[in-house]
Amino acid sequence: MTVVVTLGRVLLDSMAGYALARLRFRGRSGLFAAVIAVMAVPGVVLFIPKFLVLNQLGMYDSYLALILPLVADATGVFVMKQFFESVPRGVEEAARIDGAGTFRVFWSVVLPMSRPALITLTILSFQGSWNEFPHTLVAVQDPALFTLPRGLADLVSGSLGGGTQFPLKLGAALLATIPVAVIFVLFQRHFIRDANEGAEKG
Fold it and tell me: What is the H or E stretch that residue 9 is in?
């Protein structure tokens, strides 16, 4: 779930951010305002609507219910849009003169220059999806589909039976923390330093 959600967010958030930053189309300002508005809505408000939509579409209690609602993220779109606006337009214009289309400019020219923002988005997406707990409460009820945070919550709530079982609970919590810590340590030096860094390297 974490791998698919992270890949989906990096791809879709980047494409949406580029469209909002560079493409001119009717309703662009309203769409960006909607993205900002979504960021301001507390996640708890969406619990019941999310459950109703998943149930109505027949996706409840499935891997699709765990993954699909999380593959796009308003915060990621905002971060990528702000970064893409810092990329010099001259680079894109030169690519267009060479015959590159919109997607080719995005994929082959702008995206490679956006490494700091992409790595930041990857870290945030991995951490967010790995630690996601509230969404799993309304998306699945089959124990076979529980993610690690949901499983830990089930563990703490007494699924082990009698006794406190503190060593087992703490060990499970440690194992749940390790992947996020490893990802952050590996990529921390890339965690956005300067919005113009990617453009300067390009």
Answer: helix 2-22
DSSP secondary structure, 104-160, as one string: HIIIIIIHHHTHHHHHHHHHHHHHHHHS--HHHHHH---GGG--HHHHHHHIIIIIT
Kindly report, residue by residue over 156-182, the tens digit of the pLDDT: 776 555 556 677 778 878 888 888 888
Of residues 158 and 104, the one with the higher pLDDT is 104
**185-191 LR contacts (CB < 8 Å, sep 24+):** 187/119, 187/122, 187/123, 190/115, 190/116, 190/119, 190/120, 191/116, 191/119, 191/120, 191/123
- Burial tier of 176 (Cβ tally within 10 Å: 0-12, 13-18, 19+): middle
> Mean pLDDT lowest for which of 126-135, 139-148, 184-193?
184-193
Give the CA count within 13 Å in the CB-facing half-sphere of 21. 23
Q: What is the Cα–Cα distance from 34 to 21, expressed in whole angstroms?
A: 15
